[in-house]
Amino acid sequence: MVAVSGDSVHRVVxxxxxxxxxxxxxxxxxxxxTALGDDGRPLYSVVTCAPQPGELTTDADFTVNVSDGPxxxxxxxxxxxxxxxEDYEPQERGRLAEPVRRAxxxxxxxxxxxxxxxxxxxxxxxxxxxxxxATTHWKSCDELRTLYPExxxxxxxxxxxxxxxxxxxxxxxxxxxxxxxxxxxxxxxVANTVARRTVVPPHREGGQAQYIEQPVPEPGASSTAAAxxxxxxxxxxxLALEDLARETSMSVRTLSRRFLHETGTTPMRxxxxxxxxLARHLLERTDEPVDKIAARAGFGTGTAMRxxxxxxxxxxxxxxxxxxxxxx
Length: 328
Fold this sequence. Notes:
Blueprint: E1 10-15, H1 22-33, E2 44-49, E3 54-56, E4 64-66, E5 78-81, H2 98-104, E6 112-115, H3 120-125, E7 133-134, H4 141-147, E8 152-153, E9 159-162, E10 165-168, H5 173-186, H6 188-198, H7 225-233, H8 241-248, H9 252-263, H10 267-285, H11 290-297, H12 302-313, H13 317-325
Helix pairs in contact: 1-5, 5-6, 7-8, 8-9, 10-11, 10-13, 11-12
């Protein structure tokens, strides 16, 4: 393995295989490809490679021509492995085609590595997930756990991030994973702009359930959207479950149940996440004191916000601000 590229533009390389899923490949190019700095310059270069370049089949009625071979991995700062049709066949422990194995060996030491959907089986077979927390499509979690007991498989999350090795759940969770990477690299402001351009939610908490029983209410059924809209307009106010329930004309119990069904998380966890995102944005984009930001975001005091930052991000608000002010 070689050293990570020192280029100023972060290089993302997607390793695809025969039977690739075009949507997953498109996610990587669309999200990282539209991330821009304040000067309008791209923050990432995105390259697609294959263990053996040429025409690759997909799960659709068209093929994809990939001109770059595995040597493209040698200068990668981030490597992503999307799913392929073969991942949906019964798996065997350690099953990895030799060209794929040799390609993975080209990844530089220190590069960030991630998978989308069942691409996690490739990382597992290569030994990259051993001793780490990981996830995959909810239908395949039991199989991943059975084949690789050394992996801490979590079926109830959208993505995981464990010491530079990341995994995501089903196809759409690849969006959440890529936005998480962008957010980690360049802050919430850049990630939110990418999400807005792509017309996707700017942030779904990684710990949110990946399988939501009832994501869209039945016709005529009540929705918790009014509670979410109200909360977003009053993040700086003290908000209790009773306040949110009142906006939807529901009991607290009904609101909590329907909120979980619609969003995959609880009302108060969702609220805490929205406050955290607002605080991150203000720290990145304003010079306001921490205590003022804490009040605007609904944490009440700087001390309370510091505790939330430590628990969620592992850093203080001041350290977070210093990090992302340095990238502007």
